[in-house]
Structures are given as structure tokens and as C-alpha cells.
Amino acid sequence: MNHAWILAVSVALTASLPTLADGTARGVVYDDRNGNQRRDDGEPGIADVAVSNGREVVATSPDGRYELPVEDDTIVFLHKPRGWMTPVDHNGLPKFFYLHKPAGSPPLKYEGVAPTGALPDALDFPLRRQDEPDAFNVVAFGDPQPYSIEEVQYYAHDIVEEVIGVDAKFGLSLGDLVGDDLTLMAPLNEVTGRIGLPWYHILGNHDMNYDAADDRHSDETFERVYGPPYYAFDYGQTHFVVLDDVNWIGPRGNEKGRYEGRFGEKQLEWLRNDLARVPADRLVVCTFHIPLADVKDKQPFLDALAGHPKQLSLAAHWHMQTHYHEGADTESAGPAARPRAEGAHTTDGQALETNGHAHASPSRGHHHFIVGTASGSWWRGMPDEYGIPHTQMRDGAPNGWLLISFDGADYKWRYKAARRPWSHQMSIFAPETAPARASHEVEVVVNVFCGSERARVEMRVDDGGWRPMSPERRPDPYYVATRAREEKAEQVKLEGLRVSPKPAESPHLWVGRLGESLTPGGHVIEIRATDMFNQVFEDRRIIRITSE
Fold this sequence. Notes:
By secondary structure, the protein is α+β, with helices and mostly antiparallel strands. It has seven helices and 33 strands. The chain folds into three domains: 19-128, Immunoglobulin-like, CATH 2.60.40; 137-417, Purple Acid Phosphatase, chain A, domain 2 (4-Layer Sandwich), CATH 3.60.21; 426-546, Immunoglobulin-like (Sandwich), CATH 2.60.40. A hairpin with a 5-residue loop joins strand 26 and strand 27 (467-468). Helix 2 (149-163) packs parallel to helix 3 (185-192). The longest helix has 15 residues, at 149-163. It is elongated and about 85 Å long.
């Protein structure tokens, strides 16, 4: 018998198994009354706070203590409870976790986690009290995705500067924080941190270590910078869940590595354990990067949420806005269900009166919204007078960000086009001029940027009666015209121009015809859009009718 061969196989098998550390993490979650992030005399433990190792979820005892099993590559983290806040660093990154990697990350192109050594005798987590109303706002960014320092600056000037001072409690970035170059995470955080809010970051497919052999080590740099790729926290009466649905399949033979949309059984087990502690009437908001339509284990995810009928999820990744209702009633279901981030404000930023929130009721099933991106079309397109590409998304919507309002189990949102007034919620496409004899046939195309199948869009000419417009999927005509101009400019090699990507069929267009013969002269086409939250937005366009 070849004993050397047996020894080699045994070593290989042993190396493939997880190595246990001392087996148990212990500590206290405590009231950090003086904010120094050390437990001092007179700072009591906090009962019934959820703490997790990424699979099990346990509640702290009456004196704030917990115990959890750990392996040699484990992140121990707490679930922030209502009325408490974790420490944040100078860039607003919440600190609620401990990375336990005794040997550190494997060698990778981008820096991972340094060796942490043996597990400490106590892993204590500080919390501080804060007021948390039932009604509050949250900022959401899809895909900031800079590929260079120059594009970090685009993000700073186009998006971040106007968010500073917004009425919100925290922010979310829904993955693709950077574009493959993970050294850009630091300058990105420095920019986002100037908003002055706690900011939670979700892992995207462009935020991974592509040289990792498998999914287990594909987020080592992300973990070093942001912590666990999935976790949960409460704010007000809302339960937020951050998830990782980007599964890395490392290189195999001559094939390059690739990713797929998948949560994985370990994460789903953690999710079920987390939700077991959440009251059934609580609104559960899940955030991840890849939309559910592209996720392999979508159904097990939806099954995990079944006990919580008030549910919403947010994703990004597609660089266009759209939404779906999973398991909804016939009237509200459909493959083309889309977003409604109507900016319920006038041009000077004052709030409009609305008729209430959309309610995440059982009849609506699971509401899944794909948020438009901060980077738009990957920071491409004709530069404006400030040198920033227009980066319009390929569905015809401008790049921008979302302001979500929660109130108990209810929610609504408003979309903010980058560097545009809150009232800019649609584009109206019609010819500049039309002859009087054919004016009734003039087609009008309206792109309601966050419009959905539940929106109602109407038009009128001058002071005539309102008439409904019909939804229709096609490329946005403004986007098509803009891209055609860019292609011509590229032919003369305009400096700094990267042509916008090919147009996609927009899921939020409405089409109508003037429908009446108009006299020569100027006329006003007026559009009124009512979104799924009963927020009403109006805009107008002038057309000139000629006698010939």
C-alpha cells in the first residue's frame, strides 16, 4: 500500500474542512452611556438583543449576555434593535460586528482581512439610545459604480452634494459600490460619508474579489471595509434585512470565474432564524443587489417571508427602474410591474399633498422594486457644461436616487433625478411642429420615470378634457435621439465622450395622440400622472401648429 499517497489524500481532505477555534464566542451587549465604546461601571447589559454568527440567531439574557458557536472564519454581529444605535465611524459606517479570521484572508489582489488571532475572551457590543419615530425617511442609491477617481468625483458632484441635508435617518447603497477596482471603496466612503448619515452598503457583483477560488472568499475586501455581507436591523416599526445574493463561481479549468444570483442555504437559514423573532405584523424590507428575476433560489427566499405578509424588497443592478409583484392578485400582478418613485414635490422642493401611503398588504404579495442607479448608464454619455456625463439610463430615466418614506407598515417613495428639481418626474416627447391638417394624429410619448402598471397617466391640450394614455413598451425616443447624436460626435472623436449603451424597452412609457384638429399657433400639451401612492405629478410641453 502506498502510505505516502494516503497521507497526501488525508491532508487534502482535512484542509477542505473548517477548522474550529475555541468553539464559542461570548460577550455582553451593553448600554454605552458615555459613548466611549468600552463597558464601564454602571453601564448595564441590554436584554433581548439578537446576536448572530451568520447562521444561528440568539437573544441576549436579562443581563445582556450571549453565547454563539464560531468557526475559524466567522463574523459575529448584532441586529440593531429599535431605539438603539451602534457606533459609526467618521464616514458613517456602522460598527456592529467582529471579524474572526485567525489566519486572515487568503492572498488576493485586493487587501482582505488581516489575521485576527485567537478569539477574545469577551466580544462586547456597545449600543446607545436614540429616538426612533414610526414615520421616517431613508435614502437609497443604486450602483454608484465608479471605475476611476474621476468617476468618484462625478458621483460626488452629481449625487452626493444634493443629498447633504436631506431629511432622512440613514442611507442604503444597493451594491456595485465600485467598478471592480476595490481600492476605490475608500474614496467612495469618504464622499458618501459627507452626507452625515449612517450608511449601510450591500455587496454587488463588481465589489468582489474576482481572484477568489470560490464564493466563500469572494467578499474578503468587502468584509474588511463594511463587515458582514448580510445582517438585519430595526428602525421604528420597520425590520430591515441586508442580503447577499451574488454567488461567485471561481475559475474552473479554462473557464473564467462567473457569478450568479443566489442567496444560498446558509443565508436562508439565517434569514428564517432572524424572521422568527420578528412580529408577523411588522413590515419587512429586504435589500440586495441582483433582482429576484435573476435569482436561482427566489422561491425559498419568498417562502422564508411567508409568515410576514407586509413585505418589500429593493434591488438595483439592471441600471433601469422597474418593479414586480410576486404572488399578487390578478389585477395587480404582471411581468411588467414597475417603479413609482414619484418626487412628490414642487419645483422649489416643497412637499405636495398626497392621499396616503401604499400599504404592503397581503393582497399585494411581495413588492419588489428595482431602483434606478446613481451612475445611470455607467457614467457614460455626452458631458454637460460641468464635464459630467448626462448618463441617462437606457430606459430613458435620468440617473438619480430614491427617498423612501416609512410610516409603520406603510411606505411610499419619491424619485430624485440628479441635479434636477423634485418636480422633474417625467419627459414628454412630441414633435416641435406639426401641420394643422394632421395635428389630430400627432403622437405624444410620456416617460414617467418611476411609473408602474398601477399608475394612471392622462393628457389634455390647452384647457380641454383629460384623456387616458396607454402604457406601451418601446425604447424612449429622447434616449434614442441622444444616443444617435453621441454616435455622430464619436465619429469626430469628441474628447471625453463615451457613447451611451444601446436603448432598452422602457417599462414606464405611455402613448397617446392629440386627437383633435388644432388651429395654427402655440398649444400646450399637459400631462397628469397619478402614481400607485396617489401622488399626482404634472408637466407640460408646447407644440407649434403650422398652417402648412
